[in-house]
Amino acid sequence: MDAPVPLAAAESRLFCDLTQSWSEVGGGVGTYLRAKRSHIIENTQHRHLMVLPGPRDEIEESRGGRAITAWIKSPHVPFSPHYRLLLRNGAVARALKRFAPDVIECQDAYNLPWAAISHRKRHPQAALVAGYMTDFPTVYAERPFSKAFGAAVGVWAGRTCYDYCGRLYRRFDAVYALSNHGGGNRLRSLGVEPVHVLPLGVELGAFGPQHRDQDLRHELGMRPDQPLLIYVGRMDIEKRPDIVVEALRKLPPELGAKLVLLGQGPFKEQFEKEADPRIITPGFVTDRPQLARWLASSDIYVSAMANETFGVSVIEAQASGLPVVGVNGGAMLERVKPGTGLIGPIGDAEAMAANILQVWQGDHCAMGERGRSHVAGEFSWTHSMEVLFGEVIPAAIARRAQALQQADVPGRSPLARA
Hints:
44% of the residues lie in helices and 17% in strands. It folds into 2 domains: 7-201 and 380-416, 3-Layer(aba) Sandwich (Rossmann fold), CATH 3.40.50; 209-378, Rossmann fold. The chain is an alpha/beta fold. The chain has helices at residues 28-43, 89-99, 112-122, 136-149, 151-169, 180-189, 214-219, 241-250, 266-274, 288-296, 312-319, 332-335, 349-361, 364-378, 381-407, 413-416; strands at residues 14-18, 47-54, 58-62, 67-73, 76-77, 80-84, 103-106, 127-132, 174-177, 195-197, 228-232, 258-262, 279-280, 300-302, 324-327, 341-344. The chain has 16 helices and 16 strands. The protein is globular. Helix 1 links the parallel strand 1 and strand 2. Helix 8 (241-250) crosses helix 13. The strands form 3 sheets. The protein has an 8-stranded mixed β-sheet, with helices on both faces. A 6-stranded parallel β-sheet has the order 13-12-11-14-15-16, with helices on both faces.
């Protein structure tokens, strides 16, 4: 294989991101794509195209045509009003044909990767990159099928979806996971090689203990000796906020703990109907300074999500100086280092409550400080973009050039020169 060449030394290219997982109000993929666009526009000579689901078919261009967004009219996802289902592969194909990107990156595993693969058949010089952002075989197949039809059917459904992942991702020129436990090891077991690890980032200047607001705590009726727990993310069965709520209710009443749930989803309405004064549900907080204020004003970040592929909200909480109580699964194994919090059994609210109590009664401030130091040393958007543009994308371009050379396909020279 030709050695990857740093993209800074290459001619101007058009990079494309193609995804279902876009929300105007947050989400890990959206945060990543905004950081990627900012990096491309501010630090390179390249251009950036995003093909995204939206309320109408529309092309938006800015920054002298270097930032392009192709909105494809798409319906809302049921029970998730901030996300849409981009099912119109024909419209996607027309957008790709119109702009002819040099590299196409997909962040989901459903119909859109096949649109990219189909485009490459007609334009074989286009390099394809896939990001494993969601452990969907477990979250959306094995777990719900097990609940509805029994464990044997659930295991079969999960295995079938993982087999599909292997067949899909082996077609790409480069594949990355966000962590080893959050997908990388699984993809390798399916014969996908190599699998790069692309750590996401956090804006350290935007999050930190300095944003702690005693007035906010006072508004919530919190004394210094009462722990304020917080969770940030969708409130659906995938994220399991119900386990976090159950853990809160298993804490000793005299502790005076309260729980802030920042996000939307089916569980939010359920929690609000229960009218538990210990549970605070402000909804989505789209303003980043407000999110930083909520996190820094809390004491412990709590999550029961067992299939995190990375955990952006976890590192934002750690950047805010919070210890983390999580579960023994997915990327949480890599996010919660010894001395920065505790992880326990999956789906066990009683064990989670015990861990919350142990963290609170221990030196939780020191745990939070260690967590922030760990994040500062490992996770920045600068480092994330260095890995993406210095390792992952050059590897995809080099592999595509090699494939064209082996197939002797006309038009290979632009990539071969990369």
